[in-house]
Amino acid sequence: MSDEATIAAPSPAPPAPTGPPPKVTNRGRAAAPAASANSETSDIPEYEYFIQPGPRGYPPLTEYLDISEVDMMKRPDESNKIAHHTALYHSDYLIVRRGQEFQVKITFSRPYKPAEDKFALEFVIGSSPQFSKGTYVPVFPTKQRQTTWEGRITNTSDNVVTMAITPAANCIVGKYQMYVAVVTPYGIRRTRKESTRDMYILFNPWVAEDAVFLDDETERQECVMTEMGIIYHGSYDDIAERDWNYGQFNYGILDSCLYIMDRAEMPITNRGDPIKIVRVASAMLNSRDDEGVLVGNWSGDYTYGVAPTSWTGSTDILLTYNSSKMPVCYAQCWVYAAVFNTFLRCLGIPSRVVTNYYSAHDNDGNLKTDIIMDENGKIDRNRTRDSIWNYHCWNECYMSRPDLPPGFGGWQVVDATPQETSDGMYRCGPASVQAIKHGQICFPFDAAFVFAEINSDVVFHSRRKDGTMEPVRVNRTHVGRLVLTKSPGDVTRRDITDQYKFAEGSTEERTVLEKAEEYGCKREKSSPPAADVDVVLPNLEISVGDNFELNVEFENKSDERRTVDAYISGSVVYYTGVASTEFLFLTPRVVIEPKMNKKEVAIVESKKYMKRLVEQANLHFIVTGKIRETGQIITAMKVITLRNPKLIIEVSGRGKVSEEMIATVEFTNPFSFNLENVYIRMEGPGMMEPKSRYYRLVIGGSSLTWTEYFTPQRAGTSRVIATLDCPALRQVQGQASVTISP
Amino acid sequence: MSDEATIAAPSPAPPAPTGPPPKVTNRGRAAAPAASANSETSDIPEYEYFIQPGPRGYPPLTEYLDISEVDMMKRPDESNKIAHHTALYHSDYLIVRRGQEFQVKITFSRPYKPAEDKFALEFVIGSSPQFSKGTYVPVFPTKQRQTTWEGRITNTSDNVVTMAITPAANCIVGKYQMYVAVVTPYGIRRTRKESTRDMYILFNPWVAEDAVFLDDETERQECVMTEMGIIYHGSYDDIAERDWNYGQFNYGILDSCLYIMDRAEMPITNRGDPIKIVRVASAMLNSRDDEGVLVGNWSGDYTYGVAPTSWTGSTDILLTYNSSKMPVCYAQCWVYAAVFNTFLRCLGIPSRVVTNYYSAHDNDGNLKTDIIMDENGKIDRNRTRDSIWNYHCWNECYMSRPDLPPGFGGWQVVDATPQETSDGMYRCGPASVQAIKHGQICFPFDAAFVFAEINSDVVFHSRRKDGTMEPVRVNRTHVGRLVLTKSPGDVTRRDITDQYKFAEGSTEERTVLEKAEEYGCKREKSSPPAADVDVVLPNLEISVGDNFELNVEFENKSDERRTVDAYISGSVVYYTGVASTEFLFLTPRVVIEPKMNKKEVAIVESKKYMKRLVEQANLHFIVTGKIRETGQIITAMKVITLRNPKLIIEVSGRGKVSEEMIATVEFTNPFSFNLENVYIRMEGPGMMEPKSRYYRLVIGGSSLTWTEYFTPQRAGTSRVIATLDCPALRQVQGQASVTISP
User: pTM of the full predicted structure?
Assistant: First the structure.
């Protein structure tokens, strides 16, 4: 080797390696990857010796207690599932709730002698189970220090020992493997891994120590046990209902819910905390960012999936997601809320779907929705970007909030509908309803956002030619007009607006809005004087396809004559408040004598709106105008939801468990035009799995009948629900109540 | 058509459409997509008429004021950039800070007549600009209602008008287009879109109305203006320094920072809020979830990128990300913190990198780090999954917190290093340092997580044969031992531990921990009695490749003889505390007379550890053991960071702006083995762009010299820094201070 070779010389840098870079491993970053899949399991050795092998190898341990059989007592009619309110789950496994005792029977090779035999039941969840993480839990027949689960022997008879186990009320929720381990001086002998001993542990609203404890049996029956729900929609003064089969007990649903957490790679150790679970789920229920459950689509084109209005329940959606591992098409807000509700009830977290009428959206926690008009009071659609949703659905779930100061437990808002402008935040909540009501929006998670959805002001701006704007009218009562949910144990609606806000105009309301402003919410400060002319739009009940008259009433409250240059505009709108097409535009000049009313009649012809209807058939009328004498601006808005034709469902048969019955769906196309590519879906909890049928063509004026046989699986009152959906007509529904005797 | 045809018949469902589904549009969901890219601009028409065209088309508007020229006064030596502290930015555009006046000169076609001419400067950002969203801002020479930016004319001379504009102190931060608009009775005439009039508006820590106002000029100079930083690493009792060139003023860095927000699709309207910006950035700086800036890699294999220890500054990383649009390989915590610091300082948010020694990690806000031992006191490495990082770097940024109750503004923790087990949360902060200190961890964002990083207990568990465990020692002072940052205006370190926690053992400290427990943090309750034998490990300064002796000192504090069955274990560890290889394992029995000390000497040979060293050359010694007489467990831990060889940098030349100088880097391979694939990197703010050189081979014992010419661009004291990196030896550094005269 020459001297030169010992002198380092720079070289051209080597070419970059080709091919895909290797997957970056966890090495160096952490001692072991965090377990984040309930579906992954670990193998626990059948023999675990404490000693070194002797010259003949390990001793066989045969002289010690051996396990012949383990009975999980998991039949729906056995005490475990009845006591734990889990008999309705269609599942081959034991399902119990935490913080509450359940029993298993162990048959040993000989009678159990408490003084000399030592055994434990071991509960294991996920890969890399650890005692300190709560993912490996040995339970002994006698009280031990450092274990939070309790065990006791409730019966011994010959070789059979009945052992009762009480899982900790804060233990991890999910699917566990169970082992029986006999401890000998030389080592441990275990049962082999055996899937029949797998079991699920769920949240327990019946037990005071559980974070989801709900001290009201009627509410628990509704918010955990009820499968058939009602979701409200339509508009504030014309409420409509949608039936929904949450199906939380259907075969495969529980596994699908656990899969959602696995797919989110949620650490197993966090799965005992309902706050963390609902937060993860609020992100995972929508497909944004994370390939979650449902793809949102508000476009009206659902060619590549199922129209949001066409779903009848959550079962199809969750089972499809679990089997395809791909987001399911398509959802709008009530579909997100309904499937989220299934997830929550299935895991045992009390929950309900609520509907907020006139929901401010996409305004990122600010308390203003801006509507821009020109100097004459005509709405400038190009510059009006904010929208107020006719309604918006979200979920409430019930839990304590140890992460917050006292007083903010109870109902919490979670929302899985992706929000467009909320800082890339395609998750929302849990936000304490109490915190929202009291304007304490500084507490996690996303309380400010929900606060704005129910408390925003609608600000009408007049835009001058030079581009500046002036607020001319502020409506402080339009948004968050009404919050509804289904009454527990009943099919009526329940107004829960007062849980979200104090009475309009009360001192408390003002204080709360000021508090929210302290936390950075921006409100419109100006209060332009009210005009002395009022304009009122009527309530109307109109069926799709009807011609009708719209009476716009102007009321002059002043002592002088008033002349209004008015703009009467009618548009087809999405339920998001976004206008699709304007089908009516009138510009009357209305002269009203002092202290008098004057009616302006607009004729609405169905041919003007029919071809432009979008799925929820909402017509949005806006009247604006300028009073000549005073320059004041007047405004009025009204959403009219057109009545769709109905599906007629008739059910016949004896109405007994396990006896076949017949459901008949009838539909008549009320229009003169044909309906193409028609899907009908039908299902009923405890009676019928989701079914669907396709009709290529339903000719104008013609009828169709679909007859379906089904066999009820359990007694009680339930409903069969159906929807009809095609590109030209959406949101057609029907339902029939059925009572089944045992 | 026959009768049959009018009766609808079910058909087989049509096949699913093939091909990729169309991109789901925004239609129906929102009136317009939210603008979320600063790089997208809109076209504002040159003429905007208020009137209908006449028979000859539109009038030409030529009789009105016309604009001949606009001077943005953007040279670094002009008043705008000097007054706004933006002269250091290498940029062709005007850069100013919000809430502070700047000036532009407009030359009209004739003298401006205030009484009859009307004009405005229009500032526009992003697509779909809107007055009500703050993305379209017209500024008039006189005060207007409803505008938050102010304008005034400061000088008129012939046809030239100098106009001063003060952007609102809460306006959107980013790149704006500017137009001059002349308003006539017939319409508006504007300047054409012209990129020379583009300008940047940044945060302004010098102005009291800005949310990032920092009322200390020394701090501002350090935390906004300083490019050359020091990041602390090593271990608590043996602190090491790393120089870093943040390079926030380098050419292209500001655009790269805006690109990061664009890539996150952060709505433009949120970009005036530093809270939202830093939260988005904490997610975007790492590549998890969102294809962000940096790929984390702790594995030791950096074949497909640059080793984290090899970077000398942020410039290369940010420019590479902006040009490739792909995550850059590789980062560990200080790289995330350093690049985040560049982002923050570049946008004008005061920020600093801090280092927390003994940082609890990946334990999801619980206050326990578990170390598992067998019944004899020997560490069970398979069951010990938690790790304590020798150090962890994060950022603090300074801002008010209007979203929280008063008292929580000021320094806020943000952390871009992805956390493994924190609920899929690859973002962290802003968390108020005040809230952390006072245990008020209920406030957003992620305060509980940071609290655990500095306040966890280390719990040693003894694991019994039946799988249950008992805590045998709790160390409440190990974690969060020291928090350091660079002193402002100096190259010394500053201990800021007391900003995060009250003195160990004080009443306040106890109260704070209790408060944190109220908010759901779980602590170890048991307090096993301290053993009466202490074990102490020495401080040592050892160079890589040295053989050395480790004296383990046992001190018997009791009045009786004590016998300890000890385990002395030495491992090579990552800075994350994760053990790579155990190179030393001794099991002495130590007998100590009453009230006496006894030394046990372990010989550490370099050949045992050299081949196994990982990049930061940390040796971790753990001594555990059981006292025979009492059954008590003793423990001691010590990290020894081996000294690496240094790079010698020498700089020669006259040391004047724009005069060429020479930097020489020298390195001698101190080992008997060869170093292969060696990269050296060098840079210096205001003097030298990042440069690198590759050496295929540096033979054992040989030296290399690299000479580089450079030309300083500005006066002042700065440093040239360099690193050497190869798979066998990492984290070799050198630096030289340079003073440049004008």
Answer: 0.91
